[in-house]
Amino acid sequence: MSQTTLSIRMDDDLKRDFDSVCNELGLSMTTAVTMLAKKMTREKRVPFDVSVDPFYSKANIARLKRSVAQMESTGGTVHEVEEYDKIVD
Prior knowledge:
Blueprint: H1 12-24, H2 29-43, H3 58-74, H4 81-88
């Protein structure tokens, strides 16, 4: 079977993280992308859910920025999850 080269562009950090995960799984990035292509070709679909996380909506990010600004301007205290659990219990 003849082979061809596929060239893709992605963020440096994403490539590094993708390569790391592939290595942990014992795969090369080429093998992982080939697996994706074979699965998509066989099933004629994207083999995972594709959706938008509402956490990253413009409205929520704006709200988070306002909350951080308010906390910083009033000298608020940041609590880690473990600290919050102690307060709530």
